[in-house]
């Protein structure tokens, strides 16, 4: 099977969950011990944190990444704005922008995306998120409950696809209505962004089954990934969709030798523990309330500080980042050779899109580009939609 690599852009600083860490660049770290390597707006030297993100994006495409994932959180830079700012600083990189249906009307999302796609040669990917935590939703003004948000998302994507593929789209739903309307003129040339989504609740899985091109996961033990993939595939088939694919987000700490990689992971771990970083539960605050992953349940149940080695849930798969509160929580830790082997293993389970990143993101984009990505040169395939739904929707849209 094919394989593709994206990276992540850190929209809320390099290591926000290790407060006071001087490697946290720009004004996402405001302590007096900042390295000052990336300036902040306040000092008036005309550079901002967005310039640093631009450097990472350039490094990513120069090193052969196909795209970059950006997380949407109330405590971070807004991703669609960021990718609009960076698109013309990069030539080939795709950007995965996350947003909630709550943030836009379907038409606004369609029109924005069409403009973006035409300007960038279709380099936009959507990650449709629905908020894991009611508390965080309410902070930003959304009082609908968890499952209702997913019901709204299903309609949202029905309407988006309707507007995209029809000039005269009609819809009467619980959340949205449309009487005519749709992309016209040159905007019809734009491609509908590829649709990603995540979430392990039943509602999230059903939304993915109906609408996602890619179902995204945080890394877990391979057995759990296998089970999750089988479940999503089965659900998608019930909606007549055999084309759903899978993406995995995982950090990487890799070095020439196993010992060097372990030493770097341990340094991170010891610093986190010394700073009193909150345990596994922290990784769930806000964004990920629905389900703790199995290893997190296990760690959260224990009060005492656990030793570094306890966090290997599988060879080279280390959950220590989750323990010290750095999302997505798992990292591949090991020599270049072993990390390549683990990626192949996940690839064989059915993952064909990997989101790989390390700290600091800029330097590690080079390391991954020089030592990991070249091993997959002949197997890479740029992302494309395998379309089975559009004709039916076109007919429905008139
Ligand atoms: C790869 C990946 C990326 C995600 N990106 C975001 C994001 O940008 N913003 C967000 O609020 N949640 C994000 N999430 C969280 C999920 O969208 C979802 O809200 C969470 O898993 C809980 O969903 P559930 O309650 O339906 O299980 C991401 C999850 C994964 C696996």
Automatic annotation (TrEMBL):
<dbReference type="InterPro" id="IPR036661">
    <property type="entry name" value="Luciferase-like_sf"/>
</dbReference>
<dbReference type="GO" id="GO:0046306">
    <property type="term" value="P:alkanesulfonate catabolic process"/>
</dbReference>
<keyword id="KW-0288">FMN</keyword>
<dbReference type="GO" id="GO:0008726">
    <property type="term" value="F:alkanesulfonate monooxygenase activity"/>
</dbReference>
<keyword id="KW-0560">Oxidoreductase</keyword>
<dbReference type="InterPro" id="IPR050172">
    <property type="entry name" value="SsuD_RutA_monooxygenase"/>
</dbReference>
<keyword id="KW-0285">Flavoprotein</keyword>
<comment type="similarity">
    <text>Belongs to the SsuD family.</text>
</comment>
<keyword id="KW-0503">Monooxygenase</keyword>
<dbReference type="InterPro" id="IPR011251">
    <property type="entry name" value="Luciferase-like_dom"/>
</dbReference>
<dbReference type="Pfam" id="PF00296">
    <property type="entry name" value="Bac_luciferase"/>
</dbReference>
<protein>
    <submittedName>
        <fullName>Alkanesulfonate monooxygenase</fullName>
        <ecNumber>1.14.14.5</ecNumber>
    </submittedName>
</protein>
<feature type="domain" description="Luciferase-like">
    <location>
        <begin position="48"/>
        <end position="352"/>
    </location>
</feature>
